[in-house]
């Protein structure tokens, strides 16, 4: 904890591909929160993707190669923390990729024990809730499936959001129902995915919230893209942006200046 | 039943456009999940029972041979016969043979998914025996020449108007849209059939090794009339339905009804323990149990063994957002939803069924509600492994994955490629923050915009900051 005299907690940031590429603010917000909680954050350069696209396509050979690379990249860090229940959930699957007799199995177990999604790390592992943030508006929270069902993330983000001054949480119907992203599912089964995300944006709109918040960029890009296409006036943001008081940037899929007239 | 699983995507597209089906699916989604949730909420020990049930099923599967043989011995002691059938064909022939020995013209049937699996109705008809479905849903489907789209609510894809239409056409009565009238009509038609049938065929929810009993859990009582009135009762059951004792069975019954319909208990739970004894007032003279394997014993000892814990409650499909969007027929064979996506590849081959285990976002809702804690997403993923190993995945997927993995295992190159992709998308999107049409990503941009990257990649920005700090 920041107010104790102990050595800082050494955390390796698992950036996640989508934060890296689509929304670096999410990774910066994660770093900010970790530092506020007294962590010393580093970003191992040898990380890439968690390997989930290969794993969920049944390609265990490439999943293992990526798992080994990730395990090595994060050796030496007390914790591995990332802004995604899905990617961190994948790190938790690594032990399944190795035989009991394979020495990598134990290393994978060791990584799993240290790997946390950001909100659950702050709440469950550090007991941190000294959020210094202000956000004026009504928000609704989408529970991303992997975080919710693989890592038990439900109350943690809500507990932290309750500390954000001005933010009023209004739960939507079926907050726990999948948004239809599912990685490659959304392009392989585009019609079904479209139905699922339409249901979701409908529920979000019914909640009368002006901002939809969640913990996984895959889901957020999916829902933001749909909301934009439907022309609905709901902003979408990753939960860490609100928690780290980093909401002065455009929301996901928003223009970075006032366009006035549509182009 | 024809296998239409390879056409899953086309069927799903049609299903999504079918307003009647969507209306019917709306009823399902508005009904089952809420009822299950309140039944579970009324039972604090529900999760503890699920653990017990999982462990007990695991124990049974480790000793499946022992319990099945014990069951057989008790059935024989009770005066019945057990027929071991490795394949669907064996099972069909065995059943037809029994019907022929009885000179059976008509056969009444209680609801049974395994008889769908072995395609029994069509086979009996081809061989001059008329099957009559007596479960209301199944009866409606039979009139329509249709098949179940759900394992416990077979006609869930239909609306009241469809039933009214079918009854009007086949019963030659004035058309009614009053459910009570329709029900009375079906009852009247079926009474005659119950009395006239030479053989009654039911499924089984459980086979009890301790007593040699079979059990059916129904809400209509049709199963009772099916098995008590005819001279011959044939129970068709798959092998994994066996449980050691009556006590064990009651554990599963408590979970089954709550998981399925949210009832505390199914209305009729009927045990059959052999044929009529001299002092009995009713019951069949002949009692047969047809045990169907059809690929199940091949699952024992494999990564798919856990699927054999399934007690066919339907909670997985009732809660599945994919099933809820496209309905059961889209899956193209007997068992729909998540449980079907694991079972079907085993029975019809992964070559034909590969689209099913892929049709999941792995949201995990099915596993969350499964009363015997089957890790359905994991098992679907195992089928994807088989598909990948057998080179059945589409070329675009394999090449795409291979190319992606080339980069993902080379961090420096990966940095460079993601920076390039980010820049490309930013150029396309301009300052609008989104792209309406992205090359090679039609699956995405047909239905939604693609938010564009907000700037250089995190890794680029982080490294720039680190260097600036060093220079200070």
UniProtKB/TrEMBL annotation, chain A:
Domain of life: Bacteria
Annotated coiled-coil segments of the chain: none
Domain Cysteine-rich: 11-91, 139-223
Pfam families: CCG (PF02754)
Annotated InterPro entries: Cys_rich_dom
Protein's name in the database: (Fe-S)-binding protein
Organism: Marinobacterium weihaiense
From TrEMBL, chain B:
InterPro entries reported in the protein's UniProt record: 4Fe4S_Fe-S-bd (IPR017896), 4Fe4S_Fe_S_CS (IPR017900), LUD_dom (IPR003741), LutB/LldF (IPR004452), LutB_C (IPR024569)
Keyword terms: Iron, Iron-sulfur, Metal-binding
Keyword rRNA processing: no
One Pfam family here: LutB_C
Domain of life according to the entry: Bacteria
Domain called 4Fe-4S ferredoxin-type: residue spans: 300-331
Protein name listed in UniProt: Iron-sulfur cluster-binding protein
The organism of origin for this protein: Marinobacterium weihaiense
Lineage: Bacteria, Pseudomonadati, Pseudomonadota, Gammaproteobacteria, Oceanospirillales
């Amino acid at each position: 904890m920041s107010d104790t005299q102990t050595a800082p907690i050494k955390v390796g940031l698992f950036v996640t591909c989508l934060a890296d590429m689509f929304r670096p603010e999410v990774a910066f917000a994660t770093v900010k929160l970790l530092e506020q909680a007294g962590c010393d954050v580093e970003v191992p350069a040898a990380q890439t993707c968690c390997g989930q696209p290969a794993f969920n396509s049944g390609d265990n050979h490439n999943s293992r190669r990526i798992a080994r690379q990730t395990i090595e990249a994060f050796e030496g860090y007390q914790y591995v923390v990332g802004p995604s229940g899905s990617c961190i959930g994948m790190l938790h699957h690594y032990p399944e990729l190795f035989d009991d007799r394979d020495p990598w199995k134990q290393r994978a177990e060791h990584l799993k024990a240290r790997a946390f999604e950001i909100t659950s790390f702050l709440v469950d592992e550090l007991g941190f809730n000294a959020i210094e943030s202000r956000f004026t508006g009504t928000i609704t929270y989408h529970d991303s499936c992997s975080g919710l069902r693989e890592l038990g993330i439900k109350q943690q983000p809500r507990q932290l959001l309750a500390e954000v001054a001005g933010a009023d949480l209004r739960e939507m119907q079926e907050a726990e129902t999948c948004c239809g992203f599912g990685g490659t599912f959304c392009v392989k089964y585009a019609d079904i995915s479209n139905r699922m995300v339409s249901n979701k944006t409908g529920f979000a709109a019914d909640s009368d919230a002006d901002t939809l918040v969640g913990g996984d960029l895959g889901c957020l890009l999916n829902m933001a893209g749909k909301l934009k296409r439907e022309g609905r006036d709901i902003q979408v943001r990753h939960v860490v942006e609100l928690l780290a008081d980093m909401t002065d940037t455009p929301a996901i899929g928003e223009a970075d200046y006032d366009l006035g007239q549509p182009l | 039943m024809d296998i239409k699983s390879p056409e899953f995507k086309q069927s799903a597209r049609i299903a999504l456009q079918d307003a009647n089906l969507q209306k019917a699916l709306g009823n399902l989604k508005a009904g089952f999940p809420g009822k299950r949730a309140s039944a579970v909420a009324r039972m604090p020990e529900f999760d503890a029972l699920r653990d017990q049930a999982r462990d007990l099923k695991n124990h049974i599967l480790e000793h499946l041979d022992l319990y099945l043989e014990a069951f057989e011995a008790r059935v024989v002691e009770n005066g019945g016969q057990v027929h071991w059938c490795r394949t669907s064909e064996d099972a069909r022939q065995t059943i037809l043979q029994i019907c022929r020995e009885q000179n059976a013209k008509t056969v009444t049937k209680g609801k049974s998914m395994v008889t769908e699996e072995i395609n029994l109705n069509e086979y009996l008809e081809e061989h001059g025996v008329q099957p009559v479905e007596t479960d209301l849903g199944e009866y409606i489907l039979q009139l329509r020449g249709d098949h179940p789209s759900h394992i416990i609510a077979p006609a869930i894809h239909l609306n009241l108007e469809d039933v009214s239409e079918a009854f009007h056409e086949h019963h030659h009565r004035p058309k009614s849209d009053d459910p009570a009238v329709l029900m009375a009509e079906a009852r009247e038609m079926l009474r005659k059939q119950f009395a006239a049938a030479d053989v009654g065929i039911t499924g089984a929810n459980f086979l009890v090794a301790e007593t040699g009993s079979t059990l059916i859990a129904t809400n209509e009582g049709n199963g009772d009339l099916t098995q008590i009135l005819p001279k011959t009762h044939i129970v068709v059951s798959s092998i994994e339905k066996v449980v050691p004792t009556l006590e064990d069975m009651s554990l599963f019954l408590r979970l089954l009804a709550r998981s399925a319909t949210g009832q505390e208990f199914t209305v009729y739970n009927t045990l059959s323990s052999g044929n009529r004894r001299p002092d009995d007032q009713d019951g069949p003279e002949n009692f047969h149990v047809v045990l169907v394997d059809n690929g199940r014993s091949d699952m024992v000892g494999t990564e798919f063994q856990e699927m054999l814990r399934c007690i066919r409650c339907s909670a997985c499909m009732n809660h599945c957002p994919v099933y809820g969007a496209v309905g059961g027929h889209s899956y193209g064979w007997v068992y729909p939803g998540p449980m079907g996506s694991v079972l079907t590849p085993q029975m019809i081959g992964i070559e034909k069924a590969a689209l099913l285990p892929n049709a999941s976002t792995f949201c995990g809702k099915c596993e969350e509600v499964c009363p015997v804690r089957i890790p359905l997403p994991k098992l679907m993923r195992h089928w994807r492994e088989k598909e990948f190993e057998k080179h059945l995945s589409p070329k675009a997927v394999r090449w795409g994955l291979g190319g992606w993995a080339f980069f993902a295992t080379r961090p420096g190159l990966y940095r460079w490629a993601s920076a390039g992709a980010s820049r490309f998308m930013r150029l396309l999107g301009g300052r609008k923050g989104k792209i309406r049409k992205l090359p090679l990503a039609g699956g995405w941009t047909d239905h939604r915009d693609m938010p564009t990257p907000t700037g250089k990649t995190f890794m680029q920005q982080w490294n720039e900051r680190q260097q600036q700090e060093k220079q200070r």
